[in-house]
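pls design
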């Protein structure tokens, strides 16, 4: 059984994140991984059950684009519970110009259900399509200060609720000091 797990780990674990689709993980469409992934899961009942924790637990899971991160909760809920229960590593790219922070509480709720989640990485990005929006929407002023304050609270509550979390990275957040403190809080929990 050990040799089979080793072979499956070699075949199923990827360096780049796997995108969460509507019902399953979707690898890069240009790769032959989809055929291998499907074939392995369909090989037999025993291989299927050995493969699930490897595929879902040892790969980073992401959404396909920053704008689809706002639907992360729905994509996560569409994943069968028997698959979702193994998720341990998640990487999200969130486009702040796309009103995604309004959806962050839903993303947070989806993450709370992942008992085995150990590694969460969030990258705040601005898409090239929103270049003109970024020029108009400077992250400064009273309204934006209030928005950042709300974002801080949501992030703090989200990370605080993920008790099993061992690694947290928040890149591109407007308040770098806050992001660093939140990362350190999670890091200190490991001790």
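designed seq:
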């Amino acid at each position: 059984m050990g040799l089979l797990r080793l072979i499956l780990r070699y075949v199923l674990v990827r360096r780049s994140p796997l995108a969460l689709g509507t019902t399953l993980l979707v690898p890069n469409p240009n790769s032959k991984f989809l055929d291998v992934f499907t074939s392995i899961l369909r090989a037999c009942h025993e291989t299927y059950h050995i493969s699930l924790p490897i595929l879902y637990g040892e790969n980073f899971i992401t959404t396909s684009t920053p704008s689809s991160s706002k639907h992360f909760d729905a994509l996560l809920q569409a994943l069968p519970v028997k698959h979702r229960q193994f998720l341990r590593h998640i990487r999200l790219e969130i486009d702040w110009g796309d009103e995604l922070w309004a959806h962050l509480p839903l993303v947070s709720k989806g993450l709370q259900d992942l008992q085995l989640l150990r590694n969460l990485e969030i990258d705040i990005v601005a898409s090239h399509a929103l270049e003109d929006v970024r020029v108009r929407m400077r992250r400064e002023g009273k309204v934006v200060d209030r928005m950042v304050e709300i974002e801080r609270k949501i992030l703090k509550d989200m990370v605080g609720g993920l008790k099993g979390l061992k690694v947290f990275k928040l890149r591109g957040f407007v308040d770098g000091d806050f992001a660093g403190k939140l990362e350190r809080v999670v890091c200190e929990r490991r001790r």
